[in-house]
Every structure is written in structure tokens, then in C-alpha cells.
Description:
The structure is a homotetramer.
Chain A: E1 3-6, E2 10-18, H1 21-28, H2 41-53, E3 63-71, H3 72-86, H4 92-101, H5 137-163, H6 168-171, E4 181-189, H7 190-200, H8 207-220, H9 225-231, H10 234-237
Antiparallel strand pairs in A: 1-2, 2-3, 3-4
Amino acid sequence: MSIINVLDQGYVRLVNHMGSDLTVVNAARVSYAKQSEELSERDIRLIQFLAREGHTSPFRHAIAQFEIYAPLMVARQWWKYVVGAAHYEGTGDSLEAWNESSRRYITEEPAFYIPQAGEWRAKPESSKQGSGEPIAWELGEKHTEALMAYVELGIANYEAALQDGICAEQARLFLPSYGMYVRWYWTASVQSVAHFLSQRLEHDAQKEIQLYAKAVLELIKPLFPVSLEQLVAESHLVPQSH
Amino acid sequence: MSIINVLDQGYVRLVNHMGSDLTVVNAARVSYAKQSEELSERDIRLIQFLAREGHTSPFRHAIAQFEIYAPLMVARQWWKYVVGAAHYEGTGDSLEAWNESSRRYITEEPAFYIPQAGEWRAKPESSKQGSGEPIAWELGEKHTEALMAYVELGIANYEAALQDGICAEQARLFLPSYGMYVRWYWTASVQSVAHFLSQRLEHDAQKEIQLYAKAVLELIKPLFPVSLEQLVAESHLVPQSH
Amino acid sequence: MSIINVLDQGYVRLVNHMGSDLTVVNAARVSYAKQSEELSERDIRLIQFLAREGHTSPFRHAIAQFEIYAPLMVARQWWKYVVGAAHYEGTGDSLEAWNESSRRYITEEPAFYIPQAGEWRAKPESSKQGSGEPIAWELGEKHTEALMAYVELGIANYEAALQDGICAEQARLFLPSYGMYVRWYWTASVQSVAHFLSQRLEHDAQKEIQLYAKAVLELIKPLFPVSLEQLVAESHLVPQSH
Amino acid sequence: MSIINVLDQGYVRLVNHMGSDLTVVNAARVSYAKQSEELSERDIRLIQFLAREGHTSPFRHAIAQFEIYAPLMVARQWWKYVVGAAHYEGTGDSLEAWNESSRRYITEEPAFYIPQAGEWRAKPESSKQGSGEPIAWELGEKHTEALMAYVELGIANYEAALQDGICAEQARLFLPSYGMYVRWYWTASVQSVAHFLSQRLEHDAQKEIQLYAKAVLELIKPLFPVSLEQLVAESHLVPQSH
Lengths: 242, 242, 242, 242
């Protein structure tokens, strides 16, 4: 299946892709006017060589396209990566699309991520981590309920403001937007996706974005198996219990 | 003064700059091995020519640096410009800095933008505008009070969550973050600043970001007067009543 | 056919592509959670609207991939566009690949572009043009012969240097490299290709790169017909006598 | 002095700069609303931390500006870095300026890099190197003379073509352009310069560009001493016999 559910309402959907591991090989060999039609042992060794030596540019010619539905706080960290580290890909537009949808213009009904009682995490023991172990269930239950009530009140305030004729770009001040779901397209090269995965599968990434990164990996791995195996650290490739 | 206050608690501060209108001229003439020491009539005509013909690359060698304190919804639109349109400048990092400060790690006390009674705007009459005229004062007063109460409740919930040991990256789900103030550095070329101004001084930009754009223009105009006059539309250069 | 010959030995080959005009529509509508399966009249009007209003980001999600074989002076102007104007796409690597192939390491036998007697052009009458009308055939014949001899001598010197053990990175000083053929991969979005075409189909672009741009247009137009019609000026879409 | 000569006719000139090591510290601390006025021990440890952990974005707010005069083959490798690795800086324009100057329009008299008898290098013993030891002086002398004659003949052909009315964009096919000097402006952040240095001071970089990189390092090191010490490998900071 080309869609994987994440969190209470989110998902990652594989929309399209272009090329295969062969694309990487052919882009790398373009100056030799040679083209492979089938992935040979020699081609695999070339991919290993390119990844090991940091010659990652041929991996930019293989492309994947995703549709993502995630809380704004996840989307923001996703962009941070896109902006700070890549600048290579035509990924900027996902931002455009997303920003337009986020309450400056009224579109969908707002939807919010609400952690369940067992999903609240303690603060980390070391500053190398984003968060620690789950907190006590009863405590979690209390905050889940508080958040549900707070989100409900925010939506009520937001709708009252719209009702009174206030423009959407100001009415949204009432929304607890870190948890608000947004939806965007992400078109990125294998190089870029691998870089994103290397950062966002790390233990110090926010748990919520780690879950999205795992979904991306699961969807893209069968399409470019040799490349992903070389570009993503082994520890991240081993299936983990969610 | 090198600082201009914007909204209830925000500001734009000019931190530094490099070069002058002469820099643009010298960068454009580099291939002729000629260098001007003082801005002549001929140099001014060259700047006019470059702007008119769209040869804006020499404007990338003159640089300005700002520190900005603004609500997250303003920051997001600022980036959208940076990401979607520029990709030329070393501006990506402002984003990094900002993201880190926005409640994943606890830093400053959260501060929020609260429009005053007379500052709430109606929805636009045409879709070409972001918002319309101010709404009735009494109505505005009601929503200002509602927003103050809502923000206060959010902060209380947020602090209760931290108190109960929940990690900051989840506790922030309680914050109505569109209005939350964030602070970042922006280092950009004159080309990039002019492009930002051209978009954000337009009547369809959100009013709040227009106010920040006016502050940027006021701070940078004396440093690169000829360049700004050529790159920014005349209608935006005329001082307007705020 | 997916390959078009250009100049005496060059070509443009369509290697692959991802998406269609529908991709643009779906990327633009992502925030509405709507997806088209077939291009309707309404979808066409949306593409027209996006192009007219300059909302070109959805065009970045539709991708084309080319292999190009062209003289270095054409390749350099191609990059100039890529570097100066795009920065959006994963196109940087074509450059990497190309640079490596261009005589620092010995790969293919060097091949050179030699204009035929009737292909030499006069200097332009106006500075708005890159070149003017063809020069007299006899004059052209003289320079074609001179260039053939000069290139031959360069290759002989280059090979003598290699023969004497000189490294390739220095031996290439003997090659008249503006006309030397290089080969590269170019993976770019429809937005990026359209921008390249808008610049390189212009009458002031060098004639040789105009011919390559026409080949790119011919190959990509059937894949994204509505988008290209909107993004590229009408005058460039009318078939012209070469 | 702010200018260092490189090769037979080239140079690197420091044109301007913005900021200091303090700029890096202040950009990194922006989210804490703290600003240093003088570089303390604590600030130095922060710079060490940022470099060690790869949080290089604060280094993008400190800027340096150079004018460079170098053979085209050096310029091309410089760009390759700029295009392939940075995309962060407003450096694209140097390319614009340079490309325009390189013989499509007639500007300066063409000047060429001619290695002296003792400067020709053998091919490398290992593929990890670009070149090996100097070749025998007599052999070098032969090729220096051959190159001088070849360049002279090229210029004569080029001028004959111009004389016969051929446009400059075609006449340049006669120039052995790898060695042709071009001049450009480079405005780049400390992050970007450090990255360039890390690559171009390496033993496998072409010797000629290593010499330019050393000149850049010598000019920029006194301006941002702590940052450069952290970002550039120690082995490159030790003065070496040229």
C-alpha cells in the first residue's frame, strides 16, 4: 500500500516517483557515455563507492513525491531541514501550499493532534534527547483532557471571531497551532530524502517526526533499495518496534 | 536610531551592513577592472540600467543584517518569501535559530501579540486583499478580552504540563502560537531585501507584516538610497500614514 | 522520438519524466484535500490562473530529465541560468558530473564544435542582440578551415603533453575549450525548464543555445502541454524555421 | 596588505567584510535575547561547540567579500563548489559578471596563464591525487614554449575573426580558454568560505586552486580567527612552504 497512517489523524502517502537505483548509476557515468539497462554487481559497487566518498550528487537525479498530513510542529521541523540543509530540491513549494492553507484563508475545518493518555513523555534526562519516558497514565489522562478542552475552546473562539466578521488572518490567533494538522506535497531527490532521514530518525529528533520519517523510509526503501541502504545508517534500517 | 518598534511588543533592529550603492557599481563593473571611489552621475545611471533590465545580481554584493522580534505568523510569512523566492542568501539560519527558540526548548517566557480593540479587521471585500476595514470598537474589545483570557489559560496549561514533568516539545501544544513572539537574525543582500519589500509592502500582504516591512525599509533606505529607489516601486517609497 | 540532434555532433535526449499537467493541479489543491484524476476545464483554468498570477510553485512538482551533449560555451550559459535564477532544483549535480569529465581526468576523446562555412555570424547591429546575419560564405570557409587546423594542433599538443607524462589537469591548457563537447544530466521541474526556455529562446541569447532550447521545448511540450503553453511566451511556441 | 598575488598574473583581493567572531556568537544566542560586546572565554567555547556539533548556521551571518583574478579552469572549480555545496550565499552573481566578461562581449584584452618550465606536474601516482611531482625542467621548457606559441596563434586567429566581422560569441572558439584569466567578485559567509577552504586546500584539489585557497585563508584568518580555527582542519592552518 502506498499510504501509512501516523499519529491520530496523520499520514504519509507516496504519490509518485521517478527512476531507480539505475538512475543513480547512469547519472554518475554520464561523462563516459555509458548507460546500464540492468543493475549489475559493478553498478552496486559504484553506488557503494559514491555514498562512501560523499559524491552524493548522482543521487539527486532519482526523485520521490509524497503527500503528508501532519501537525504544524512536525511540518516546521521538516522545513527547517529543507531550508537549512538542502536548498537543492524543488521542495520549497510544499511550504507555499501549506502556508496558504494554514488559516489565513479558510479552507478545511481545523483538525488537531491530541496525544492520548499514554503518549505524553517526560522531559529528557540528558540534553541530547528531545524527551524521555512516558509519564504516568493518570497524569497523561489529565493533560489529554485539558488539551481537548483547550482546543475546543480555541475553535469556539475562532469561529465566534469569524462570525463577528473578523478576517481569518487575525481570527487564527485563537488556534493552538502547534498541534494543528496541515497537508503538503513534498517532491525530493533520493539524496535529499536520505539526508532528511539521517537527521529525523535520530534519537534526539522529536518523537512525532521520527514516526513520520519511519513512514517515509518504509515507502521509499523498496523503490531505491541499494541507494537507501548506502545512504542511511544501518541502525535506522533495522525495523524497530514503534 | 537603529531600532524601530512594531506592534505591541515587536521591533526591527539594524545590526550591521556591508557596502553602499558603490558596491553595486563595482560588482557590476568587475569584468572591466574598473573601480569607483565616489558615486558619480554615470554610476547612478548604471544602477538605474541594472534595475530596469533585471540584471539584479550586482545587488547581491551589498548586505544588511537585522534582528527581528515578531509574532510567529509574521515570521512564517517572512520565511515563505525566503524559501520560495530567494535561496540566494545565507538567510536560512535565521530559521534555525528561531525554530530552536520556539518552545521545543524552554528559553524566554512566552510573549504574545494581542490586537487592541481598534486593531481587529473585517474580512476583505475582494479576494485580492488579506483583510478589510477595522471592525466596530465594541466588537473588537470583546475579542481582545477573549484573546487575553485564552492566552492566559494557554500559558497556565503549558506551565502545569511542565510542572507535571512533561517535555517542552509536547507541552507547547497548549500555546496559541500564531501570536507568539519569536526573535531571529536576518542577513540578506540588497537584492533580497528589495524583493522581500516588493512582496510584503503590497496591499494584499497581511497588515502585520506590512508594518515590519515598512520598518525594514526605513532602516535600510539611508544606507543604499539609489539602489532602493530603483528596486522598490515608487508607491511604496512614499511615506504613508500607518 | 526522444532524442533530437543539435549542431554538428550534439543532442538533447529525454531520459525520463514524472507527472503531467494533473500533477500541477493536485499540488496546487493539496490544502483542499482534493485530487483530480483527469484534467477538466476547471483544472485548465486553474493552471492559467497560477501562471498568470505568478504562483509558480506547483509547477515544481512536475519533473523532466534530460541528457545533453553540447559545446562547453553552451553548457556554461546553461549553468549560469541554473545558478543565477533557479537554485530550486536538484540540477547542481549535472555540473559536478560535467566538470569531472572535462579534461581534468582523461575520459572520452575530445570532440569539438566547428561551425560550417555558412554558420559564422556577423557582430550584432544592436547591443540587444548577441549576433547578426551570416557573414559571406567565402569568409566563413576561411575561418572554418582555420578553426579545424587550430583544434587539430591543440589536440596534438595536448596528446604530446600527456605522452611526456604531464597530468591531464595541466595538459588541457592546450585545448580550445569553448567549443569542446561535454555531456551532462539535467533533472529539473517544469517551472525551472520554463524559466530556462523563457530566457534561452530570446533573440539575444546565443544562437547555439537557442537551438538547444528549441530541442528541449519540442521534447517536453507533449508531456505537459497546458503548463508549457501558459509558462512560455506564445511567440516561442510557434514553430520557427531554424 | 589586502591583496595577494597568485600564479603569473592572478590575485585575490579582500574587498570588504562584515562582522567578527562576535557576530557568530550573537547570531547563535539570538533566541536568548543576549548580546555579547566582547569575545569572552565562554563565547569561544560556544564557537567550539557550534563547530564540533555541526551547528554551522550562525557562521552564515559573518561575511567576507573578495575580488579574484584567475584562470577559467580555477574559476570553474570554484563555482562547482559554490553550486554543488553551498547554495546558501549570494555568490551566484560573480558567475553572471564573469560569464559576461568571458569573450561573449569584447572587454579586456585576453590574458592567459602559462606554467613556467618548472611548474608542469606529472600525472599522479594514485588516483587520490590530481597530479604528482614536477616533470623534468627540459621537458617543461618545451611545453611552456609550445603553449606560448599556441596561445599566440589562438589570439591571432581570434583577432582575425573579429577583424572579418565575426561576432565575439563565435570568435572565442579560437581561444584556449582553460588558461584564460577572468575576474569576479565573491561575497560569501564564513561558513561558506570555510567549506570552500576545506575542499580546496585538500591534496587532491588541483594545485592551482590550492594556491588561491591559501590566499583566501591568509586574508580572512585575521578577521575571524576563532571561527576559522574551528572550521578549517588544523593541518590546513599550519603555514606550508608553497
